[in-house]
């Protein structure tokens, strides 16, 4: 499958927006797609996760981490809609555009 993946921060510090096309095996989770992007362009798409009872949770992308004090986090969207599942279970379809947007709650 090919997934269009982008990361955007227009909230804190130095703003950025990067996009890439990721080719991953059919049935890959979003986490696996993100891992491919990070392997191909580690200086841009590197990320960190922590394990929670709901599965892996993305804490940081491109060196920018969410923070409970200022109520920021990385939100994942497909076609502008927030994903209902976590990155460890969500399986993008071929041609899907996934956005990670640094957001507040």
Model description:
With 105 residues, the chain is mainly beta. The chain has a single domain, classed as Ferric Hydroxamate Uptake Protein, Chain A, domain 1. The protein is 14% helix and 46% strand. The chain is built from two helices and eight strands. It has helices spanning 30-40, 42-45; strands at 2-9, 16-23, 47-52, 55-61, 64-65, 72-78, 81-82, 97-104. The N and C termini lie far apart (32 Å). The mean pLDDT is 98.
Give a quick precis of the structure:
By secondary structure, the protein is mainly beta.
CATH fold name, please?
A: Ferric Hydroxamate Uptake Protein, Chain A, domain 1
Indicate the radius of gyration in whole angstroms. Answer: 13 Å
CATH top-level class: Mainly Beta
The CATH architecture comes to Beta Complex
Number of strands: 8
Largest sheet: 5 strands, mixed
Report the order of strands and helices: EEHHEEEEEE
Give helix % range. Answer: 10-25%
What portion of residues belong to β-strands? over 45%
Q: If strands are numbered along the chain, what order do they take across the biggest sheet?
A: 2-1-8-6-7
Write down the overall geometry: globular
Cα distance spanning the termini: 32 Å
Return the domain count. Answer: 1
Overall pLDDT: 98
Instruction: Give the uncertain stretches in residue-range form.
Output: none
Organism: Acrocephalus arundinaceus (Great reed-warbler)
Pfam family, one: DUF4430
Protein name: IF factor
GO molecular function: cobalamin binding
